[in-house]
Amino acid sequence: MTKKIHCLLLMLLCNFVMLSQTTEIVKAINENAFGIKDVNPNIELEKNSTLDNIFKDVIIFGFGEATHGTKEFFDLKVKFFKYVVKNQAVKNFAIEASYGNCIAINDYIQGKNVDPKVALNNIGFWTWNCTEVLDLIEWMKVYNRGKSTNDQLIFHGIDSMDCATAAKKMYDYIKVSNIENKEEYLKIIAIYSKTQNIEEAKKKELKNHLVLMTDLKTVLNKNAIDSSDFYVRTQEAIIQYIEFSLNHNQTTRDKQMAENVNKVLTSAGAESKVFLWAHNLHVNKDKIQFNIPSMGNHLKEKYGDQYYSVGFDFATGKFNALDLSKNRLTTIVIDTVMKNTSTEIFDKCKFDTYLLDFNTAIKTSVLADYLNSKVKHQGIGSTFDPKVVVEERLINSFDAIIFVKNTTESTLLHN
What is the pTM of this model? Predict the structure, then answer.
């Protein structure tokens, strides 16, 4: 009996200590968090010295998302993009989508006659084919109106999972050119303009294609004004797709996306900055599962503190995702906060929506200890599996977290 009493007392003491620690952590979050009153992207953030101090040395703003189908995440990213455009001289927007599939969107925001809904539908991912991204595109178009070319916003695709659109544009260009080996190049390019998936191609064939397409890039470079020449960049998209097909894994993809962010910056000039829109795993500045260097990890290694990574999380709500058990896109509902996670801690904060800058937060010892400890939270992408849990030290992964207590699903344009 005495032993049972001792065990009970010990358990009660542990619970008391844990509750006390949680209370201190939540109190510190409340004191350090930047509360966001409204997620509506049309209600813009007022110029703020706290945000300007956080962002003052940043040239790459990596904004993630905890799911690929949450309205509030998208709206908040638009809100912050507008802020850094107007207050941090950001001109480049880069999204987790293939280069060629974003050309039409960029044409539209720069005043060309393009149907924005068709352009967005062709972006290649259901995740971005939603009202929230369409509204962003419309805002970018209005912002660019009447501005000089140097002052206009540019919409970039930085992914490498599809090159069909890029190949079609390259085919049309080479067809009317006078370069040597023209027919040989056209024969290869035609293969990539007709399909988004060539995994069935033999590795030897892919390697031969890579040699020829790299040779074509060399030819194009000789006639280009600079390395940012449209057709040089378009050819690079084809080359990257072949490389990705040869090494079809996350390591290759994230490395290529980081390379493409670097191309955006180098082509835009010495004072250029870029806003990144991707999943938490890609903007993560640490290595991710299986010790894979993420896009953010590559950028952190190259740019140091000039790269600022923002992760997103939420407590409860709705979001769009692929239900693998039903093999269809659906609206998922999470109505209880996952226990023993960082999500549970962040949910106790007094703000419904807030940004917590870790570089400031770690000046408070209790937050420094917590952010440096391993914590768990749910891992959700374009698919949903309640068993997938991420474990990481938040301070290693991100420079800040944006937390939303309750979410709704993004407004898909096509189901």
Answer: 0.93
